[in-house]
Amino acid sequence: MPESNRLIDLVDERIGHFLGARETILLSVAPELAPLPAFSRQLLSGGKRFRALFCYWGHKAVDTGEARGTASLEPVIGTAAALELFHAAALVHDDIIDRSDTRRGAPAAHRRFEALHTENAWEGSAASFGEGAAVLLGDLLLGFSDDLLAEALAEDVAADRAVAVRREFGRMRAEVIAGQYLDILEEHAWRAGREEDLLPRAERVIVYKSARYSVQAPLVLGALLAGAASGQLHALREFGLPLGIAFQLRDDLLGVFGDTEVTGKPSGDDLREGKRTVLVALARAALPPSARRVLDEMLGDADLTDEQIRTLQSTITSSGATAQVERMIARNVARANHALDDAPLAEDAVAQLRELTRSVSDRVA
């Protein structure tokens, strides 16, 4: 997809320029702040840029006019870059909450700061310093995302469109934080609810922690920048939500069964973190009481051995839950594709969205 590749290059360029300007500000305060921009660049140098791509193709799906030059796309490039900064902030905070050691095959941000403390033989707890510094880095990136969005909306965007974009971005931010809280709550309070509610609660986490902000919100933000009509926004929302659900369901499978060399995270990481995902809810519902008790006792043990991870993987697979999640992914992909049939959207953009659907749902990392 040459056009998508070009978009990614432009977004990367915009992020680099923005971080360069912010680095100047930080270093003017104190040279000791150098790790903040350095770690920001490292974190933002990787990733698949799915959110940026959905923002761009959401815009192109609505912008059916002939004038599609790069100059007219500056606001959407800036908004796409802001989404990537927001995603980076969420990853930093998520890794702290989940006690993850790695991100994209490299140390997580809090581990980088922890190593910095150890290397310099500073006073106090290296782990405490690492977590505290990473919280601030995540906060910084969250603020940066808002700053970059403001810059994008200042680039010849009509006032009504800018207001709509800001409202959607703010809603997305609130929903992600709400979804993250529900995810934490589920790990700690799952026994307090009814057994039959475990699956719908896990599905609720998927929607608000990931599905909306990974696919649906970026699509809508791009479309709003182009002045989308209500029918176009409806079609994009109907496409984006099921695809976002499929995206996260695939992520949940990778969190349990993914290849470390490909995903950049240890295999079975979600099991050690005690994630109460749809996959786990389905497995529990299918297992006999004795096997369910073993699953509950082992899930969330940070010291699980590789052999124990393999045992849990086998238990989940034999329960039929893995196959059920694969079917759920297929159903949601079909729903997403169906939403594009006869949608009032540009044909070339629809073709690219269908291609992205395959990339998102069939990925191995």
Helix content: over 70%
* The CATH class: Mainly Alpha
- Largest sheet, spatial ordering of strands: 1-2
Q: Give the overall silhouette.
A: globular
User: Count of helical segments?
Assistant: 16
CATH fold-type name: Farnesyl Diphosphate Synthase
Number of domains: 1
CATH superfamily membership: Farnesyl Diphosphate Synthase
Question: What fraction of residues sit in β-strands?
Answer: under 5%
Mean pLDDT: 94
Which spans have pLDDT < 50 for at least 5 consecutive residues? Answer: none
Look at the helices and sheets and give the structural class: mainly alpha
The helix/strand series, from N terminus to C terminus, equals: HHHHEEHHHHHHHHHHHH
Radius of gyration: 21 Å
How are the elements arranged and paired?
Layout: H1 2-29, H2 35-44, H3 50-62, H4 74-98, E1 102-103, E2 106-107, H5 109-119, H6 126-153, H7 159-189, H8 198-225, H9 230-257, H10 260-263, H11 269-273, H12 278-286, H13 289-298, H14 306-318, H15 321-340, H16 347-361
Antiparallel strand pairs: 1-2
Structure description:
This protein has 365 residues and is an all-alpha fold. It has one domain (2-361): Farnesyl Diphosphate Synthase, CATH 1.10.600. The protein has 16 helices and two strands. It has helices at 2-29, 35-44, 50-62, 74-98, 109-119, 126-153, 159-189, 198-225, 230-257, 260-263, 269-273, 278-286, 289-298, 306-318, 321-340, 347-361; strands at 102-103, 106-107. A two-stranded antiparallel ribbon has the order 1-2. Strand 1 (102-103) and strand 2 (106-107) form a beta hairpin. The longest helix is centred in the middle third of the chain and has 31 residues, at 159-189. It is globular, with a radius of gyration of 21 Å. The relative contact order is 0.11. The model has no long low-confidence stretch (mean pLDDT 94).
